[in-house]
Predict the structure.
Amino acid sequence: MKQREVRLWIREHRLSFCGLVETKVKAVNKEKVLQNISRGWEAFCNHLSSPNGRIWVCWDPAFVSVSMIEENEQAIHCRVQEAGKAWSCFVSVIYGDNCQGKRESLWADLISCSSLFRGSPWLVLGYFNAIRNQNSRVGGSREWLSWMDSPDECINEAELDDLKFGGHFFTWSNRREEGPIMRKLDRVLANADWENRFSGSEATFFPLLQ
């Protein structure tokens, strides 16, 4: 999404917190771009791990405070607290690597975080670049290799599960009329503490961009 589109999206949905992935914005341009998106907001980026800052966590300090827990090439983990301190939670914004081997470190990272965040609401969302099971794909090869089990094994071991969601199931396609391929590569996951504290919360997946 372009900067203007992000700005309008924030206004339309009255957001006070958001995660952006595949931003392709260098560190030197961070503040300028952030103010173009939403004036007065603050942000964490993973420029230390990725020169182009593949992941951004942005928020309006009038409504929430955010503290960084850890950042790496595929994730930013942070603590989010409501301005009045009525509630707090942990949020992980994910952008999985194209390389299957590198994604193994993401799965290990999430499992490690599950111990750190246990006992607190934890939300994990973003582009995982991997499917959870056979039902998460249509078209293309039907081959299922052993390493493809890793995302589901990670989710189970980290004691996470898909947050209730509506909208479109598939979040990626090859955009072809002949031989279409569709995949669910984006997910919103939550632990039991999130479900207990924020019962009724729901994710919405919008139509694929053309």
User: Anything to note?
Assistant: The mean pLDDT is 94.
